[in-house]
Design brief:
This is 3-hydroxyisobutyrate dehydrogenase. Keywords: NAD, Oxidoreductase. By secondary structure, the protein is of the alpha/beta class. The protein contains 14 helices and 9 strands. It has a 6-stranded parallel sheet with strand order 3-2-1-4-5-6, sandwiched between helices. A 3-stranded mixed sheet has the order 7-8-9. The longest helix is centred in the middle third of the chain and has 30 residues.
Length: 294
């Protein structure tokens, strides 16, 4: 019998992830606090629950994909939260990007109630979610990770196991530090080129033809060329993740001076109205700060 999945959180990433689970043959029930936002998924054959209780009760797996620590804590362990409605052997999988501390706390709370929980945040953009090319970064009991392989394969091209609860979230912060710093470095190099008076398109060609070119650069090149930033990964989410990185670095003694500086760039961009644009909009912030007028 097909596994029954309750999927909670229908943002830009959650919708395509839930659809891919349905396409893979799982019986998927979705829930979003704004009920109307979930209704279009009925047209694709997914069940839309009107309450959290209906979404998660008697499911084999419950997946959460939410915006931040506060939302995840509330939906899992708050009053009338998921843990009030599920019982073993249901597996609880949080695929949100949150603090490792929050993830471990929730896993401990779930364990006290007999529920196994994994953290399994994803690396990839909306396009990666739509094409089932996410990379899933997991922490928690290995047996549960192995049990979920068919579920992860429906949403991603790879799933990596890092160890105990919280380690998936730690891995996500590691890769997103590199992601944010890469965008910062590309943006700074382009700002310098602008101030030199070099043609931006030729500079972009130069980057593309050298060893520093990456698939990530290819994804962002057109946005930088046109200074148009439809969100694949919103700047506000990158800012949140940088904040989580620096919080963990402060706790474990990691020295990350460049990350601290990049955090300030993203924070300034958010304060100047760019938070809902793609993370590449940090380039626009640096152009503005450098006095480059368009």
């Amino acid at each position: 019998m097909s596994k029954r999945i309750g999927f909670i959180g229908l943002g830009n990433m959650g919708v395509p992830m839930a659809l891919n689970l349905h396409k893979a043959g799982f019986y998927v029930t979705v829930y979003n606090r704004t009920y109307e936002k979930a209704l279009p998924l009925q047209e694709h054959g997914l069940e839309v629950a009107q309450s959290l209780d209906d979404a998660v009760r008697e499911k084999d797996i419950v997946i959460t994909m939410l915006a931040n620590d506060e939302a995840v804590e509330e939906i899992i362990a708050g009053d009338d939260g998921i843990l009030d409605y599920i019982e073993a052997p249901t597996l609880l999988v949080d695929m949100s990007t949150v603090s490792p501390d929050t993830s471990c706390m929730l896993a401990d709370t779930a364990k006290e109630m007999g529920i196994t929980m994994l953290d399994a945040p994803v690396s990839g953009s909306v396009n990666s979610a739509e094409t089932a090319n996410l990379v899933i970064l997991a922490g928690g009991p290995k047996e549960a990770f192995d049990t979920l392989q068919d579920v992860f394969q429906a949403m991603g091209k790879a799933s990596l196991y890092f160890g105990e609860n919280g380690s998936g979230e730690k891995a996500k912060l590691v890769i997103n530090l590199l992601l944010g710093m890469t965008m910062q470095g590309i943006s700074e190099s382009l700002v310098l080129a602008e101030k030199f008076g070099l043609d931006r398109n030729i500079v972009l060609d130069m980057i593309q033809q050298t060893t520093v070119a990456t698939p990530f650069f290819g994804f962002k090149r057109e946005l930088l060329a046109k200074e148009e930033y439809p969100a694949a990964f919103a700047l506000k989410h990158m800012l949140k993740d940088f904040g989580l990185v620096l919080e963990q670095a402060h706790k474990n003694g990691s020295v990350l001076p460049a990350t601290s500086a990049a955090y300030q760039s993203y924070a300034s961009a958010a304060n100047h109205g760019l938070k809902d644009m793609d993370m590449a909009a940090v380039f626009a912030e640096l152009l503005h700060a450098s006095g480059v007028k368009k």
